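Predict structure. Chain length: 896.
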Amino acid sequence: MDYVGNGHKFPSTKICLLFKSCFIFFCLFTILFNSKLAAGYAYGARNLASDTPSGFISIDCGANEDYMDNGILYKSDRDFVDTGINQPVSPNISRNLRPQLKNVRSFPEGRRNCYVLKPENGKDNTYLIRASFLYGNYDRKNTTPIFDLYLGSNLWWTVDWDNGYVETLYTPSTDYITVCLFNTSKGVPYISTLELRHLDNTIYRTPARALVTMQRLDIGGRSNLRYPADVYDRIWNPLNVDTLNSSVTNSSISQGNNDAYKIPDTMLRTAAKEQNASCSLIYFWETQSSSAQFYVYFHFAEIEKLVGKKRRLKVDLTGQRNATTNATLDYLKPLSLSLNGTPDNAGQLQFSISAAEGSDLPPLLNGFEIYAAKDMRNASTVPVEADAMMGVKGEFKLIRNWEGDPCFPSELSWSGLTCSNSSASNILSINLSSSNLTGKIPASIANLREITSLDLSNNELTGEVPEFLVNLPNLRNLNLTSNKFTGSVPKALLQRAEAGSLILRLAIVGENPDLCTSLKCPYNLKKYLALIIIACILAVLLPIVVFALVIYKRRRQRENLKREIEERLLKSKNRQVRYSEILLISDNLKTTIGEGGFGKVYYGTLSDKTQVAIKLLSASSRQGSNEFKAEAQILTIVHHRNLVSLIGYCDEAENKALIYEFMPNGNLRKHLSGNCRTKDFALEYMHFVKSSKQIAGLEYLHSGCKPPIIHRDMKTSNILLNERMQAKISDFGLSRVFANESDTHLSTCPAGTFGYVDPLIHLSGNFTKKSDVYSFGVVLFELVTGQPAIIKGEYNIHIVDWAKPFIEEGNIQNIVDPRLEDTAESCSVGKFVELALSCTLPTTAERPDMSDVVSQLIECLKMVQDKMPNMPQITSHRIEEFSYNSIGSESVFSPR
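Prediction complete.
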């Protein structure tokens, strides 16, 4: 028996009680001072969760930041892989690509490099996993690499093409999934995107744990379909068969609660059918294997309204053996069924859809899927032990060659591990000596029930030797020398060492000085009591000091800003009026002209016949006095021809009001929505483009104000129109001023209106000028399409997600408001839509500044003028023409 050492043991009762008391006090203190911060993070997390489909993991391999695209949160892969290099594809190729395909992560080092996915639903659930690859000449070699793709220890696919994706439906036996790229010496492996989607566990069930997607076709479709049309984000490719009759309906397909397949409504509304009942729909598919098992899923919906009869079908799958089933279709109700079989000896799989016996209606088919069954039960590490080793890797932050399955393939087993020679391999030994390990021994080692040897010597491990080591029944060799353990060794371990059933190495002279290695350990109460008291004091004082410094810094910034604003307000004290004057000029609040977040808006007239709008703060308002003061202060110190002018304000105890210039033509949303878009407004395309330039008074807030101002609630209902249809921005209650000119973002509570808020705010919590640019882009889309920010329907869709497919296909005219078609000029419309799209790009770095936006809008206006020479010429009003000032000095607040 080889164990030597002496040390000190904690007094078992007094010190434990003291430590618990200090720990409880620290926890209570931390909770008290961080509750508001925690609530803020929880709010952001809830918003992010609501914006992201449940059960989705979407990774843009090679991206530097997270972003939203088509309603899906795409994350950088930094948290999913430990190796590799981020590289952009060739600029000649990336111009028209989706964001996910503009970068790759390549793996020039190591034979196996793996992504680790941890779906929230865990093991024994069915997932769709899709890996996409676009070579894009990222390495400037013009040679497409060839490499293998693995799921765990199982070969998934050999990637030998330069643009495509591979997809499988997979049921893992562990709570994590590894997707590995194997270097086969035919080029450097790379990957563009990796996506996981949780499916309903009642569908796509087979004896094998994986179905590899071969084909998924939408018969009669015109373009690809995926999320949000397909809630599982399956990709449906169109299949147009000119020799068949196509059938289309505009009626909605009733999905119902029992349809777990959730086939897209758009796909089911198109179908192909034969001429008559004597003909069959026949489909041939060539495979490379005559022994593989294939599963074909057929999807039907009756889209013809039949009187007194139903369409009855017979479905046959022909190969080495035949499979048959029958189906009866109900009007506008989906039906999915599946057959499986193997191809014939020539490698051909065939299915046919025909009229069932006695039916006089021709066969019909809406879509189908073909999958190849793949046995993903090859040799692998026992799942519970594989999970345990992943825990060890995570705790110790080990990289090495610890990728994929710990034991398979055997030539790539993790360094330092010895595994048993069986199809379900056990971990027999771990040697992590001299590995610069820190922290405590991971608890997951307790699940390695077959381990015989554990060597953790020559590291910086701390804490006590854990009790669970006693419960490893086959452990014969344990080496913990040259670490920094404290406390005492479990009695049962020492007894096993004395009995000779365990070789226990704990310390040589001078090592592990605070570890007691005998059955009876003395203790130094005074020493450890002092240490614990000091630790408790530091645990309490440190958060107080940090919290105080943060509060002090923020308070100084607020005081400096408040002082600057108050100095400007002193120059315009004449704007403040009494509540009695408010009642006089509004005829005792007689005429209500609107209602918003502050409360009601009333009509009034000043003594000089000036018409005004009076916004009166309601006691039940959703917005409070802080927003009231923010709007009053901002509008008092800024002035621009395209910002609504503040004429005066009232701030008396409970009576608070803002007095604006009157805008008789209401807000822009009213003119855009439905039939309310007025004839005058739509009469000439010039009005449409000029309005967009006028709205760009936002540029003044960003670049003309020092420090800059972020509006934070830019939308069409906050854009008002005067008697000349001139657009002005209003509602500054949520606006914020930067602390100084060099600041780039504001960290504040979430604000704004759903549909207009930059999706990136949910990720970072920071508002920037580019957040306003995103909102402005949504407004531009509303102007050109006449659609609202959120288009209502069976599935609500954001206006950008709705318009983007048409733009990518070059069908811009399909999104232009029909009321503008006669006056809209195609070149300027194209540039206008291009500008709107650039404002709403997923990342802030890709979006233009407001100054660039205004320049491009001026170009649009000039293009229109070239086509419409009779229209008045445009004067370019830049931000330099405006500055902080006051509006007049003569008081006009008296009754008319």
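Summary: The domain at 666-881 is CATH 1.10.510.10 (Transferase(Phosphotransferase); domain 1).
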